[in-house]
Here is the input.
Amino acid sequence: MVSIEGVKFQYDAAGPVLSFPDFSCAQGGRMLLLGNSGAGKTTLLHLLCGLLTPTTGALTVGSKSLHASTDRELDRWRGSEVGVVFQQAHFVQSLTVRENMALPHQLTTGRIPEELEAKMDDMLDRLGIGHRAWAKPHELSVGEQQRASIARALLHKPQVVFADEPTSALDDASAAAVMNILDREAADATLVVVTHDQRLKDRYDSCVTLKPQQP
Amino acid sequence: MKLGVTTQARRNLQAKPLQTALSLALLAFGVGMVSMMLLTEKQVNDAFERNIKDIDLVLGAKGSPLQLILANVYHIDAPTGNISLEAAQKVVKHPYIASGIPLAYGDNHEGYRIVGTEMGYVEHYGAKLAEGSWWAETFEVTLGAKVAEATGLALGDAFFSAHGLTDQTDIHTNRTFTVVGIMEPSGTVVDQLILTAIQSIWDVHAHDGEEVDPSSREITAMLLKKRNPLAVLTIPSTLRDTNMQVALPAIEVNRMTQQFGLGTKTLRAIAMLIMALSFASIFISVLDNIRARRHELALMRTMGGTPRTLYTLLLVEGGLLSAGGTLLGLVLSRIAMVVLSSFVEEQFHYSLSSMIPLPGELALAAAAVAVGLVASAIPAGRTLRLDISKTLSEA
Here is the structure.
């Protein structure tokens, strides 16, 4: 599940206080966080990932109360229970697609079990990029990068998946394909999509619209 | 699949081949130069020490004292001239002198000196026979191990000597030398000498078999062992009105190494400068990596990487660079030593081929790796303060 209550955040003492509406999403549910530029979408996403600490309020993601956790706990939690699909597909450029996929497991547990490798190959095949498994990220097309990014976020079966503008740079057909992949592959996880893409507003029953923040 | 921190670090270095090669090359040159100087100094000093071996004074013709030592102790320079055997024997009889070993030479065979001497010379260096016997008659010779190997001469072979110490043009065809023995390698100067009786040297230079007046017989030098330390002060004053001088090997060699010392100090300073540049290169390389890869590093934090994980990764990258550069430098110094050794062997018949790592080199390697780690640890510290949210937002 994902739940936030009375969350406010301030980047620095002299800066504006950003406020976010309360909402919750049940385990395995889907939710859209819709907002235009300046609504604090990225800030909220980073708060939900435990990359930022709220000034006030309570954030619960999966089994974790983020506002009451240490940095070390949050690092481990992100690696094991959270999957993030970024707007721009970030990769470690010196590693292959397969190695990038295995990296969260390596960083969290210090090893890569053989069964994970089999899962990796299955997932890449399902996403249609099995033949690109040994390629370096810069050798992939934008669409392939996006699918590889989804594969990496979902491989370790996270409880919660956050997707940051997953369709913003895609045409209608590609956007629909990416969302279908996300829905299918994250079937057991809670999926929170943060976007300004109006094409997605009717996709899920649960949608929270973020209003522009007051300066 | 192995994706440990060392694999990741290695991949990151391979992804920037030019930068990595520059850092490696700089450190390898610096370490290589220092290592080569340590190896050379050690082997040259060892060779000097081995050959001085209880020779307190060298009596010879007036001229450069250093030349007298280099010619008669190490056999790598021309002698200063000849001295009277009779006069030299008078010096040996001085109460402050315990013993003397005469040396007479002026000819060579294929660049190897033919030295007339006594068995005392062989005993002094502890040389042993590998085969055959010691010279007994005139024109019998016993070869040093290196001479036998280089010339291919074997027991019973005969050869002519050539006038001079390196030249092969003026050959004495009037007399034939015969090989009667070959010595075991001793690691001393006798390895590169052809030893014979002094009489052989006199006879080969005698005109048409004429007998030389015993009072006018000459030798090249006399190696002296003192009985009394005052010999060092007293003997020179007794030679004031003669054509002779005594030189102290220890002092002359010390003077020479001090003169070399200025050169080696300069070289060492250059090597240290190159090493400092290489550490700066590692520092810049790690710093540049952090700047260029900050999004990757932030990404790794979102995937479960702790600040310590990222810090360790960058530290290992610096460690691999410094360890690789150091190892490459030690290999490089040995390749250079092989080249230098072949040159020295050709010019002076001395071998500098020992490649065993010296304690100084191990200390150098440890220091290079440690400084390399520090040079990467300082910029890597930035990862501990990386603002992940801000970095990801900038992408």
User: Anything to note?
Assistant: Residues 249-292 of chain B form the longest helix (44 residues). The radius of gyration of chain B is 31 Å. Chain B touches chain A through 28 residues (CB under 8 Å).
